[in-house]
Design brief:
Elements: H1 2-15, H2 21-76, H3 93-98, H4 100-121, H5 123-129, H6 134-188, H7 192-220, H8 226-255, H9 257-276
Helix pairs in contact: 1-8, 2-6, 2-7, 4-7, 4-8, 4-9, 5-6, 6-7, 6-9, 7-8, 8-9
Length: 284
C-alpha cells in the first residue's frame, strides 16, 4: 500500500500544473479524511452485520475500482511523454540530501511537522487530564474533529488562490494560536467546553497548515526523482513528528499543559516565519 501511495504521489508531482498544486493538496487532505471515515469507520462498523470476509472483499473491490482510472491515465499518456519526466538513474535518498536547497527544505519541513502534530495530537490526553468522560471525547471531538478538517480542506482551496500559500499559513497559524489559547484557558479554569472547542479548532488549523505544506512539497519534488523526493519530504517529517509527539507527552508530565501549549505557540510563530521566507530563488 505504501509503494502504491508513493507511486501515485510521484505521478501527481509529474502531472499537476503549478497553478493546481493548492487544489491538489486540499483534495489530498479531503481524500485522506473521507477515506479514514469510510475505511476506518463505516467498513469497520459494518463488520458486525456482514463479517470480516465480506468487508475484506469490499476493500479489494474498492482498490480495484480506484486503480483502474490511474491505469487508464497511464495508458493515455505514456511515461516518456509526461510533461516533467526526465531520464533518471535509480532513485536515491542520498541524492536529495546532497542537494543543499532540498536538504534545507527537508529540515524545515521536519521541524514544522515536529511542532504542528504534537500540539494537535495530544489534545485528547489533555481532555482526559481535565476529567472529561472518554465517551464525550469520542462523541464530540472524535466526530466534529474530522468534519472540521474536511471543511478546512474545502476552505483552503479558495483561500490559497486568493491569498497565496503565505497568506494561508498566516490565517491557519492565527487559528491555531486562538485554539491553543482556548485549550489553555479551558484547562486552567476547568471549562471542558472551551478546552474541547480548542481541541477541535487546533485540528482544523493544523490541517490547513498541512495543506499549504503539501502544496509546497508538490513543487519541491519536481526533479529527477519526484516519487523519492515526495516520499522523503512527506515520510521523514511524519516519522519525526511521531517521535516528537511521544516526547511531548512525556514533557507534559514535567511542565504541565499550559506551559506545553505556550511553548508550542512560540515554536509555531517561529516556524511560520521561516516557512514564509523562500528557501530558493524559485521557491514555490
Amino acid at each position: 500500500m505504501a509503494t502504491m501511495d508513493i507511486a501515485l504521489d510521484g505521478l501527481a508531482v509529474e502531472r499537476i500544473h503549478p497553478t493546481w498544486r493548492p487544489r491538489a493538496a486540499a483534495c489530498k487532505l479531503g481524500a485522506l479524511l473521507t477515506g479514514a471515515m469510510i475505511g476506518g469507520g463505516a467498513f469497520v462498523e459494518l463488520f458486525h452485520t456482514y463479517g470480516w470476509k465480506a468487508i475484506f472483499l469490499c476493500y479489494a473491490a474498492s482498490l480495484l475500482l480506484l486503480v483502474l482510472p490511474v491505469l487508464l491515465l497511464m495508458k493515455e499518456l505514456p511515461h516518456a511523454d509526461l510533461p516533467n519526466a526526465t531520464r533518471r538513474d535509480a532513485a536515491s535518498l542520498s541524492a536529495l540530501l546532497r542537494n543543499p536547497v532540498q536538504r534545507k527544505r527537508l529540515t524545515l519541513l521536519t521541524l514544522t511537522c515536529c511542532v504542528i502534530f504534537p500540539i494537535a495530537g495530544l489534545n485528547r490526553l489533555m481532555l482526559l487530564d481535565l476529567n472529561v468522560p472518554i465517551e464525550q471525547i469520542g462523541g464530540i471531538v472524535g466526530t466534529l474533529g474530522p468534519i472540521t478538517m474536511l471543511i478546512t480542506a474545502v476552505i483552503s482551496m479558495p483561500l490559497m488562490r486568493r491569498c497565496g500559500l503565505s497568506g494561508a499559513l498566516i490565517t491557519f497559524t492565527a487559528l491555531a494560536l486562538l485554539a491553543l489559547a482556548a485549550m489553555t484557558t479551558g484547562f486552567v479554569r476547568v471549562q471542558s467546553w472551551l478546552a474541547m472547542s480548542g481541541a477541535i479548532a487546533v485540528g482544523a488549523a493544523v490541517s490547513g497548515i498541512f495543506v499549504a505544506l503539501s502544496a509546497r512539497i508538490l513543487g519541491w519534488s519536481r526533479g529527477a526523482q519526484p516519487a523519492t523526493d515526495y516520499a522523503a519530504f512527506y515520510g521523514v517529517g511524519r516519522f519525526a513528528s511521531t517521535l516528537a509527539t511521544i516526547a511531548g507527552a512525556q514533557m507534559v508530565s514535567w511542565i504541565s499543559w499550559p506551559w506545553f501549549y505556550a511553548l508550542g505557540a512560540l515554536a509555531l510563530l517561529i516556524i511560520t516565519g521561516l516557512l514564509r521566507a523562500p528557501i530558493a530563488e524559485k521557491d514555490e
